Amino acid sequence: GKRVKGVQVFRPFVYGTTARPFDEKTNPKPPGVPDDHTHSWMVFVKGIDDVDVTYWLRRVQFKLHESIPNHVRMIEGEKGKPFQIHETGWGEFEITIKLYYVPESGEKPQTLYHHLRLHPYGRTEEEKETMRLNGGEVISWVYEEQIFNEPYEAFYDVLTSG
Ligand code: SLL
User: Fold this and answer.
1) What gap in Å lies between CA 97 and CA 100, rounded to an integer?
2) 115 lines ligand 1 (CB under 6 A)
3) Which of 92, 96, 117 to mutate to test the pocket of ligand 1 (most atoms within 8 A of CB)?
4) pTM for this prediction
5) Residue 46, CA distances (Å) to 7, 50, 51, 143, 152 in order
6) What one-character DSSP code corresponds to residue 48?
7) Is any ligand 1 atom within 6 A of the Cβ of residue 29?
8) Handedness of CA 116, 89, 97, 135 (dihedral sign)
9) What pLDDT digit, counting tens, does each position of 75-128 carry?
10) How far apart are CA 40 and CA 56, in angstroms?
């Protein structure tokens, strides 16, 4: 196919982690979760404001720490739903996130790296305190823009008719 010359298409998305400490009142530990697990957390890739992204993003592979059972997880796109995984654990680590695009794009998969944050972080004590006040919820999200440079004509149609 031919490419659309001189055109770049941008699609915003967000990825990252949200974690919460287990707490009898605000986040009770579900039965069966090992004693040494201190947090529930999730990792996700999604459109801003949950806008559908599955017309350009087909599947996402999350590679978690090897200590986690079944640590490589492939999530297939479902229209309007975030790509996400819920887990529990005790430690922080780097998550490898691999984005697989729709076949019309002709794009190779792209890899992102994201540090799972369980504990409040920030440049200042104030920033950390804000997280503690927020029910101990630790949010680490990255806003990104996917650039499609000179997309194939068929893919350009898909991108611009959505
Ligand atoms: C650390 N380098 O030592 C890191 C490793 C691994 C975290 C963190 C296990 C969860 C499970 C889990 O939380 N691993 O057993 O399902 O801090």
Assistant:
1) 10
2) no
3) 92
4) 0.94
5) 24, 6, 8, 10, 24
6) G
7) no
8) negative
9) 999 998 999 999 999 999 999 999 999 999 999 999 999 999 999 988 999 988
10) 30
